[in-house]
Amino acid sequence: MAAGAVSALFLLDIKGRVLVWRDYRGDVSALQAERFFTKLLDKESDAEVLSPVVHDDAGVSYMFIQHNNVFLLTASRQNCNAASIILFLHRVVDVFKHYFEELEEESLRDNFVVVYELLDEMMDFGYPQYTEAMILSEFIKTDAYRMEVFLDVVESVNILVNSNGQIVRSDVIGELKMRTFLSGMPECKLGLNDRVLLEAQGRATKGKAIDLDDIKFHQCVRLARFENDRTISFIPPDGSFDLMTYRLSTQVKPLIWVEAQVEKHSRSRIQITVKARSQFKERSTATNVEIEVPVPEDSTNPNIRTSMGSAAYAPERDAMVWKIKSFPGGKVRYLKIIEKSGYQALPWVRYITMAGLQGGIYRGNSDGHSFAGWAPEASWFRLAQARKAADSHVIDFTHVLLFDHVRLVHDMKCAAAKPLPPRACLVACLRFP
Prior knowledge:
Mean pLDDT: 70
Largest sheet: 6 strands, mixed
Number of domains: 2
CATH architecture of the largest domain: Sandwich
Radius of gyration: 27 Å
Structural class: alpha+beta
Number of strands: 26
Distance between the termini: 68 Å
CATH class of the largest domain: Mainly Beta
CATH superfamily of the largest domain: Mu homology domain, subdomain B
Number of helices: 7
């Protein structure tokens, strides 16, 4: 016997109010959402584990999931395959996130026309149909906003430091994430300061070139061309995707060096002094630096003083969190968009650098010996300086380095911001019960 069909699909807010609903078979009404939410509240009052399947006395079965502040709910009078419908609802979430970045109440209200189009295509007379975002993008398109391309360079820096402050091991794991809003099928070219490419072009590589290892590309990249001349050429799909991932095994100079010293004053009191020193040029600024200082689990009444930024004790993390406004990361050499139809496109490049697996301050001994490490949380800034070439409507990002470790690109809008001083200091006194 074939599995039953879904009668209707509802999108509800956190209070059970209907945001969007689509009737597929005409055998249920919009009141089913109210009945479902009443049943849901009754089940939540029980101590039992909440089931994703709810039944009512009128012979209607409800299957639902919750994502952020939205309930995705199906109602059916037939015997449906519950696992299949729950999986379908998760695929609906993935499709909406592809179109709207995030599925929440506000994004549904702002894009309700597209939501109805997607619901019509994803389910036909109560049976799931298309659930692949890339396939749906072929015939349900959103208007490209100002012909834009967004590129995020996300680099996680892993550094292992010994008790003497020497770097034992370091590497960088990088990702290039793209989000495109382009009409037609433009060709994009991405250039990096790859040592192999620069040497093949006969250009100087001292100080700028890097060796990329473990490179993985999205399926849209022309691999044959990359193998031939190291050019990353591709026709990007609509929406968000990971263009490439890579690893840098070169010695990394920490952008922010942290030193800490622990002094034991009595059996119930210790003092921790943490000093953060920037190791990049003054014209480069960093933002949202977060340093986490581990403290004993039974610490009480911390007294914290900082020379800049703010610090707070986080007992749930057994740590003090020190936040400072400052810190940049990786960079791209250039990004070009070529479209024969002649329209203008605007690329945006964002740079994100965060602590990797070994990021963070390493706990020191209580005998006064210092320990070292680093712990930037994450930061980003955007470079919106574009140059239009004389032909082919090429937009070119130049003078951008992938990971120079010393020379850092700076946001033109943040040039007047106060840079991180050479040193910043935090002193914390802890007492134990």
